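Exercise 3.2. Students should predict the tertiary structure of the chain below and write it as structure tokens, then compare their answer with the key that follows.

Predict this chain's 3D structure.
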Amino acid sequence: MAVAENAILIDIRTPQEVSEGYIKNAKNIDYYNDSFMDKINELDKNQPIYLYCRSGGRSGKALIMLKDEGFMEVYNLLGGFNGWKSSGNDILVPPQ
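Answer key:
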């Protein structure tokens, strides 16, 4: 995945899902948290944003929400975390 240098990678999975692994440099903002859009709106709307969830469903919905909020460059990581992992890409697992 070619990512712009100033891009923000957002993992919108739950903390429990993140505990199973995540993509390096991803910031976790839980899609199901009541403050999801408040936290999203703290981000720079002109920076490229890449979203991912477990398989791509939530991040696809979130992409629409962000575009509706005026974010200019928003991308959905197709296949989500599962697709990333099954393609042999590196993941990090937080200490338990």
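Discussion points: The radius of gyration is 13 Å. The chain has one domain: 8-86.
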